[in-house]
Fold this sequence. Notes:
Structural class: mainly alpha
Amino acid sequence: MFKAVLFDLDNTLLDFLTFKKETAKAAAKAMVKQGFPEEEIKVYGKIFSVYDVKGIEYQKTFYEVVKQYNLEVNLAEKIQQAGILAYLQRKSEVLRSYPMVKPTLKKLREIGLKLGIISDAPRNKAW
Length: 127
C-alpha cells in the first residue's frame, strides 16, 4: 500500500511552460516599448534562445538579450529593467496550477496519503 505521493512542481502541478511563454511575451513587448531596436517576436525568440543555452531559470536572461546590441549603458539598463518588471508583473497573473491539481491533492490527503513536492528549480523560486 502506498503511504505517500511525490510530485514534481513545474509542468506537473504548475503550468510552468505557459507561465514562461506569457512572461517572455510581456517582457519582449515592454523592452521594445522602451526602445529596444528589434521586433517583439524576435526579442521573444532571443529570450528563449538564452533559456536554451543557460537554462530556463537563468537569472540574467534579459541582460544577455540586451548586451548583444551594445547599446548605450543607460538605454540598455532601462530596457533590461522594463523587461524584468513586465516579467514579474505578468508572472503573478499567469502562474497557476493545472485545473485538477487542487481537487486531486485534496482527495489524496483525504484518503490519508502524505504528499510532497520535488523540483530541480532553485529553492528560492520554488517557494
